[in-house]
From TrEMBL:
Residues 39-220 form the FAD-binding PCMH-type domain. The keyword Magnesium does not apply. Gene3D superfamilies: 3.30.465.10, 3.30.70.2190, 3.30.70.2740, Uridine Diphospho-n-acetylenolpyruvylglucosamine Reductase, domain 2, Vanillyl-alcohol Oxidase, Chain A, domain 4. It comes from Sphingomonas canadensis. This is FAD-binding oxidoreductase. Belongs to the FAD-binding oxidoreductase/transferase type 4 family. The keyword Magnesium does not apply.
Length: 482
């Protein structure tokens, strides 16, 4: 620990008590690696402030002493954004103790939640008031509001409700000098210049530490139905989505799953069962909801729409879950894909978007291009087709190992994939952010105006690089990777 870090830790302990910091290496260890286990950092202490005032004081002290801080929520991020640098030059600051829901107003359709509130807990609390927060994802049992805001997370309801940017009505955050931006009051109109709330959303902890957020709620669903559909191609899946959307606005989720992802889940995740009698090349998981008592029952709606799709030859097979347990089972398959991949072997993850109408072609032609350029690999693209965003995951050839194969081959394969994405007018980060995983690629692919502007904003707010150094964008331009 540097003398400055030591000083900071002692001051924090004195001022805010033993709960606010630990230097116990065993207690810190689980928070030093990312979910995929690809980044490993070091931090001599874990700061755990209990309030916005404490975060503000800690950041002010850190700024004065030149001690860098890495904000961390549930540590479920996919880009190494919450992993501290390996040289121990920064201290971890976890929001885990800031886990109060300050208020939920059914009347205003609003929740104000502290940064450390876990998404599943917010879902539950909203439901108790007859409301819901309409953003969900596989990591909902661990991901926090602060992390979701800071990554501008997406998930499986973006189709209808948008990502965090659309759902966050206000942000409270501590800026890199320790001052507090209070953007929690919800104003329908506010034109006092740049939108600071939106600037902090998706900033990955590089511009401020989010301490709370005002979040938009919607009425709880009256009922839902979930279907699993077998399809020949991704184009058929997109055609099906459009055909359904032309007839109803009850479709809330539409996720695409290739045969390769389904079979891996069935093999790796205990208790999962194939939804259809015979495997199909592509699958769609579709959820329809009734928001009010007068809406058509979603089960009957899906039966009717999917019956027509089967008759028209748009889909090959389909089943509507007969019970809530079966519906949960379908979702479990979808939500377990990244877990199954992690267990099974080496996967290179790409979280990409292209214009929605181009995505089916990209999935097929992009996969063929990768598999022919890198023999033995298998591309398994899955996810949020309706948002023009898939997880374009490349599985390593059989026998490849994480320690040798991944560092030797992943950079070249990733550059190849990202070049295809950029050539299609897409983005190399649709929903997970940049973190440290994609920083060099962001620098390489820009565009330069975007990178220069991000850097200028970082310079303006955090000129000494106190918050989350080495993530998203560095203060000085980096030399291109060899
Ligand atoms: P962390 O991982 O702790 O941090 C993520 C980033 O935010 C880091 O840069 C960190 O420094 C910063 N940060 C955290 N808290 C704060 C704060 N209070 N203030 C400032 N910065 C902060 N993501 C999606 O978008 N869509 C999905 O469908 C999806 N599915 C997933 C499924 C699984 C199984 C897993 C493991 C992850 C998935 N993710 C998904 C990724 C992840 O859950 C999200 O990125 C989530 O927003 C991270 O939240 P967290 O609290 O774990 O943040
Ligand atoms: C998902 O949608 O399941 C996650 O965002 C996936 C991932 O890349 O692991
Ligand atoms: Zn996703």
């Amino acid at each position: 620990m540097t003398p400055q870090q030591q000083n900071l830790v002692e001051t924090v302990r004195e001022r805010f008590g033993p709960k606010s910091v630990t230097t116990d290496a065993d207690a810190i260890a689980p928070w030093l690696s990312d979910w995929r286990g690809r980044y490993h950092g070091a931090s001599a202490a874990l700061l755990t402030p209990g309030s916005t005032g404490e975060v503000s004081a800690i950041v002010a002290l850190a700024a004065a002493a030149g001690v860098a801080l890495v904000p961390q929520g549930g540590n479920t991020g996919m880009c190494g954004g919450a992993t501290p640098p390996a040289d121990g030059s920064a201290l971890l600051l976890s929001t885990r103790r800031m886990n109060h829901i300050r208020r939920i107003s059914a009347e205003e359709n609003l929740a104000v939640a502290e940064a450390g509130v876990i998404l599943a807990d917010l879902h539950e609390a909203a439901l108790e008031q007859g409301r819901r927060f309409p953003l969900t994802l596989g990591a909902r049992g661990s991901a926090t509001i602060g992390g979701l805001v800071s990554t501008n997370a997406g998930g499986t309801q973006v189709l209808r409700f948008g990502n965090m940017r659309s759902l966050v009505a206000g942000v409270e955050a501590v800026l890199p000098d320790g001052s507090v931006h209070n953007g929690l009051p919800v104003l329908k109109k506010d034109n006092r210049g740049y939108d600071l709330n939106q600037l902090l959303i998706g900033a990955e902890g590089t511009l401020g530490i989010v301490t709370a957020a005002s979040l938009r709620l919607v009425p709880a669903v009256a009922s839902r139905a979930v279907a699993w559909v077998g399809l020949e191609t991704p184009q058929a899946a997109l055609d099906l989505l459009r055909a359904m959307e032309a007839r109803t606005n009850a479709i809330e989720s539409f996720e695409i799953v290739p045969a390769s992802a389904l079979s891996l889940v069935l093999e790796q995740i205990p208790g999962t069962r194939a939804p259809l009698a015979a495997p199909q090349p592509w699958n769609a998981l579709i959820e329809a909801v009734a928001s009010g008592a007068d809406d058509e029952a979603p089960g009957a709606l899906l039966e009717r729409l999917l019956g027509d799709a089967l008759e028209a030859g748009m889909a090959v097979d389909a089943v509507v879950a007969a019970s809530e347990a079966q519906a949960e089972g379908f979702w479990r398959i979808r939500d377990s894909i990244s877990e199954a991949e992690r267990t099974a072997g080496v996967t290179i993850a790409h979280d990409i978007s292209v214009p929605i109408p181009d995505m089916p072609r990209f999935m097929v032609e992009g996969a063929a291009a990768v598999e022919s350029r890198f023999p033995g690999t298998l591309v398994s693209p899955y996810g949020h087709l309706g948002d023009g965003n898939v997880h374009f995951h490349v599985r390593a050839p059989k026998g490849a190992d994480e320690v040798h194969w991944y560092p030797a081959h992943a950079p070249e394969i990733t550059r190849f994939v990202h070049d295809l994405v950029v050539a299609s007018g897409g983005s190399i980060s649709a929903e997970h952010g940049i973190g440290q995983l994609k920083r060099a690629e962001l620098e390489r692919l820009g565009p330069p105006v975007r990178v220069a502007t991000l850097r200028a904003i970082k310079h303006a707010l955090d000129p000494r690089g106190i918050l989350n150094p080495g993530k998203l964008v560095t203060l000085a331009p980096e030399a291109p990777a060899p």
